[in-house]
Amino acid sequence: MRSLRKTVLLAILASVVLVLALLHSWPTRAYTTVDLWQQPGLLVERHLEERFQEPDHQLSNIPYHVRDSVASLLARNSCVCEGESGGVNLPFTQLLFPRVSAHPLHTAFEASELEEMKRRRAKEYKSFQKRSKTAADVLIIAEANSPLQYPTQGVDVRPLKTIIIPGLAVHNLPRDHYSINITATLGTLNVAAEVDAVRIKGDGEMHMTISSSLLPNLNRQLQFVTYTNTLFNPSTVDTVQFETEGHQAVFSIKIRHGVTPKLYNTGSKGEYNVSALVTIATKTFLRYDKLQDLIDSIRRYYPTVTIVIADDSENPKTISGPYIEHYIMPFGKGWFAGRNLAVSQVTTKYVLWVDDDFIFTANTKLEKLVDVLERTTLDLVGGAVREATGYTATYRQTISIEPGEEDGDCLHMRRGFHHVIQGFPNCVVTDGVINFFLARTDKVQQVGFDPRLARVAHLEFFIDGLGSLHVGSCDDVIVNHASKIKLPWVSQSESDKTYAKFRYPSASSDATHTKNGLLYFKNRFQCLTHN
Ligand SMILES: *[C@@H]1O[C@H](CO)[C@@H](O)[C@H](O)[C@H]1NC(C)=O
Ligand SMILES: *[C@@H]1O[C@H](CO)[C@@H](O)[C@H](O)[C@H]1NC(C)=O
Fold first, then answer.
1. Most buried one in 20, 289, 324, 429, CB count within 10 A?
2. Percent above pLDDT 90 for the chain
């Protein structure tokens, strides 16, 4: 009996301690649950769009004449890929007079699986759009003759922080009584100070009304309106409605963290220290003789620059030496996987990409490329590659995307560039360059090399980077290419033959299918044209 009572007492004591411990560790802040898939901002936008869609019947009766030369420049939202036909088929015509050819991409899939592929792509695309669109992408039109004054852009708030909304006022509106409504969707409104003879309703909420019969007092009050973001998002936009009877205005407040900088210490002033600024990255596969020639040539000009080598050969050999990092990968992992690995190990501000069969010469002046990146906003700058024949290539490409409907967009690639860069007469702005480029390490890491592209790939990196990479090309920094053109009197080594089999597969091969399949599904293109 006694021991039973003792056990019960002990049990009660234990539960009290447990409850106390639980209470102590219980989160004191109440957390709300938010639906991150629903964007409240976008609902407001729909309402805004509807307001402007009512056609103006007075205007629709006025006749007009289309100016074809200009109208044809406008995107039609239903792109097509057209090649150029005709012309004579002589050897080297493609080199001398490049013609545009068009390629459908759905051929990467069997006819039987195409419908299913299209449906799946549409589903993924829809969710991509949901993730990537913010209220900042929605068209906002200021209505005619509004007495409302408000900020059109440049209002920023950090997530969950508070700001004063600058510039709110009402002008030239004779009335007996003024009433202003302000409505937000991702935060609350309030006032940092109160003004006499002004009535405030809904302060601390998403919908606030400010009213007064004195316009100067109302305007004074509007100078103290605050916005507090309440729904956390590291980068989005709130669309705020600002209205008084008969007049409406809409403006946006950007909600975002500041960009965290990644800065590199570039050393003392004076000449660029290439060893401190640049890492040379390459990928090798079977060609150790060529790689050694590359390393030897680099060392003649840059004895202390770090070289990162990614290697997916079947029987890797040891490559050692000062300032060399050799990373061995599983056999045949491929071209882009190797680039990714090499670039991921770079710790300098810039990374120079070279192929393992390049040779540095006195014309391979990395300082020049560093200078371009240091003194412009470019993220990546390509050089030139000289073939054994003396022909020098920069392989500049412009890339553009035309919107299509549910079949996908059209990708157009053309040789060429956009502008010459002021102060650098040998350099131009373009979208894609040759396999020899210097780039900001963090930007290349952000875009990344899709490791699914194992064999045939190069421009895919620039397609993925379109819109985030600012690309240039200079033809006065030249690296030599160990002979690629097969000269009949030079016999190919065994490793060269194996290499060629892996690296240059035929157009009907799996590798080409994989590439076209990625362009079709991942990038949502229906077709591509290039010259
Ligand atoms: C302001 O909001 C209130 C509801 O809170 C509404 O009754 C009133 O009509 C609105 N005024 C204007 C000018 O939109
Ligand atoms: C250049 O940078 C390297 C590596 O950071 C350093 O060891 C070397 O002393 C620097 N050279 C000069 C001249 O500053």
1. 429
2. 48
What's the DSSP call for residue 238?
A: E
What architecture is the 274-482+495-530 domain classified under in CATH? Alpha-Beta Complex (3.90)
Report the alpha-carbon distance of residue 454 to residue 340 in Å, rounded.
12
pLDDT bin (cut points 50, 70, 90) of residue 87 is low
User: Quick one: which ligand is closest to 270's CA?
Assistant: 2
Torsion (CA) 345, 347, 348, 349 in degrees, nearest 10: 100
Cα 399 to averaged position of ligand 1 atoms, centre (Å): 50
Name the H helices within 302-409.
335-344, 366-375
311 neighbors 284 (Cβ within 8 angstroms): yes
CA–CA separation, 364 vs 298, rounded Å?
Answer: 9
Cβ < 6 A, ligand 1 pocket: 179, 181, 207, 209, 243-245
Q: Which residue has the tokens 């010469």?
A: 361
Task: Enter the CATH code of domain 145-255.
Answer: 2.60.40
* Short-list 253, 231, 37, CA closest to 133: 37
Ligand 1 mean position, distance from CA 231 (Å): 24
Indicate the pLDDT class of residue 155, thresholds 50, 70 and 90.
very high
Q: What backbone torsions phi and psi does residue 296 show, to the nearest 5 degrees?
A: -60, -40
The full 3-state SS of 131-155, as one line of letters, equals HHCCHHHCCCCCCCCCCEECCCCCC
Q: In 333-450, which residue ranges form alpha helices assigned H by DSSP?
A: 335-344, 366-375, 441-447
pLDDT tens-digit map of 357-410: 999 999 999 999 999 999 999 999 999 999 988 889 999 999 999 998 888 999
Is residue 505 exposed (0-12), middle (13-18) or buried (19+ Cβ within 10 Å)? middle
Query: 10: burial class by Cβ within 10 Å (0-12, 13-18, 19+)?
Result: exposed
How far, in Å, CA of 295 to CA of 297, rounded? 5
The per-residue pLDDT for range 295-346, each reduced to its tens digit, is 999 999 999 999 999 999 888 899 888 999 999 999 988 888 999 999 999 9
What are the residue boundaries of the structural domains of the chain, listed by start? 145-255, 274-482+495-530
pLDDT score recorded for residue 515: 85
**Cβ pair 528, 413 in contact under 8 A:** yes
> CB under 6 Å to ligand 2: residues?
267, 273, 275-276
Does residue 507 surpass a pLDDT of 60? no
Strands (E), 289-443: 306-311, 324-328, 350-353, 358-359, 380-386, 392-393, 397-402, 409-415, 419-421, 424-430, 437-440
